[in-house]
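Lab notebook, bench 4. We co-purified these components, and the gel suggests they stay together. Before we commit to crystallization screens, I want a quick structural picture of the whole thing.
Request: model the full complex, all chains together.
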Amino acid sequence: MKRLLTGLQPSGDLTIGSLIGGIKQSVEFQNNYDSFIFVPDLHAITVPQDATLLKERIKKNVALYLACGIDPNKNTIYLQSENLYHTNLSWVLECSTYIGEANRMTQYKEKSKSRENVSVGLFTYPILMAADILLYDAAYVPVGADQKQHVELARNLATRFNHTHGDIFTIPEPLIPKIGAKIMDLQNPTKKMSKSNENQKGIIFLLDSEEIIRKKIMSAVTDSEGKVYYDVENKPGISNLLTIYSSFSNLSIQEVEEKFKESNYGNLKKEVADLVVESLLQIQKKYQEFMESGIVDEVLNQGKEKVNELARKKYEMVCKSLGLGRY
Ligand code: ATP
Ligand code: LTN
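Here is the predicted assembly.
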């Protein structure tokens, strides 16, 4: 069975963007692939984090994965920092990454623009991501559109390494959702909804209360035309709402457009809010149950043991091919 792997940074609370771009695809494919889902906590510290909050978020994220439908019997679930081979392999890959290709990563350019003291870790983060993927021979990596370039870097690094050192790594492919590859900020619909945005009014977090979700959706920025149809370029706000509805209802964009073609913006927003509230309240109920049970530690312990063993084998192959150590 081919392997599928993804991770969601605990750098902020998870949003409906994280659900649609990352988790939903893993849930859909968990019956068909050997699925791995992990918490890339080392990625989160590429920017400063509060230790207490980070620790809480790591547990919350795992409980949220489960609440969103990730089945612990069908998935290997683990923390990146509990497997030292991720950073070991990352170093090896850094040594075969060209400065030029690392410099081309657009997310780094974006994220470093708005900060003063940019860490080297933020710059090398895509290489650690490549290690996360290549360590386990993942064939497919479900991610939102913003992560496509990083998966492409992982492909290039794997291809280069294999070319020089033998057939060591599987070449991974990104799986980008057909609908919802980029959920936009409700207040600024030309910008990705991102959990680390300063202004939280445009972001729907998975754990937002019903009242907050409704408020955020009802005050989403739209346009003045008054007609509901899908046109990302000229109607980014309305198109985003249609996309959100489509992702939560599993209807196609055309079906959603048809459903709302006679609606005014107020009605559309209300229906989107109803659907999002219904879905998130169900997730939140399950989330509470998982947080209160001991299941999070249980699945993480199992995952830790399994992935350390797999990673050790792969890392030894890598070392051997490079002449490192005494293999
Ligand atoms: P940050 O802003 O801190 O970088 P993020 O919100 O972009 O975080 P994650 O939550 O770590 O990112 O992303 C998890 C997965 O969800 C990734 O595959 C990412 O591409 C996807 N994702 C995140 N936000 C969106 C979005 N707005 N639309 C679609 N996919 C998204
Ligand atoms: N960089 C990703 C999170 C991430 C990831 C990964 C996703 C880290 N390692 C490996 C898929 C596979 C993000 O910021 N969303």
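The domain at 200-288 is CATH 1.10.240.10 (Tyrosyl-Transfer RNA Synthetase). Worth comparing against the SEC data before the next meeting. The pocket of L-tryptophanamide (ligand 2) is lined by residues 5-9, 40, 43, 129, 132-133, 141, 143, 147, 150 (CB under 6 Å).
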